[in-house]
Amino acid sequence: MSMSVGELVKEINKAVLTVEEYRILNQLVVRHIKARKKAEAIKNSALLKEGDVVRVNHDRLAGLTGKIIKVKRTKAVVKITSTGNQYDVPMNLIQSL
């Protein structure tokens, strides 16, 4: 059975949980977020290679495009086309064009 986010929030708000139970719930959510990000990074690292033109989805870089200079395990060095600056960018924030 799959619940929507709204239904989950309602159930959590109705539940009478201890602080420890809230900690356990928080740890579970954080684990799921980290696993999802890691899976996305692994998928991206397999697809991306040096020389690829990409868009960076990060607040500071606001969707700028750049070229991959080097692919690391969980990050890539991206040279931004408009400024020439290089950044280490997490794989899950890189989108191939």
Q: What order do the helices and strands come in, and which of them pair?
A:
Elements: H1 5-14, H2 19-47, E1 53-56, E2 65-71, E3 75-80, E4 86-90, E5 94-96
Antiparallel strand pairs: 1-2, 1-5, 2-3, 3-4
Fraction in beta strands: 25-35%
Gap between N and C termini: 36 Å
Sketch the major β-sheet: 5 strands, antiparallel
- Gross morphology: elongated
Strand order of the largest sheet: 4-3-2-1-5
User: What oligomeric state best describes the polypeptide chains here?
Assistant: single chain
Helix and strand string, N-terminal first?
A: HHEEEEE
Return the structural class.
alpha+beta
Q: Work out the radius of gyration.
A: 18 Å
| Overall pLDDT level | 90
Q: Low-confidence parts, pLDDT < 50 over ≥5 residues?
A: none
User: Helix tally?
Assistant: 2
Structure summary, number of beta strands: 5
Q: Helical residue percent?
A: 40-55%
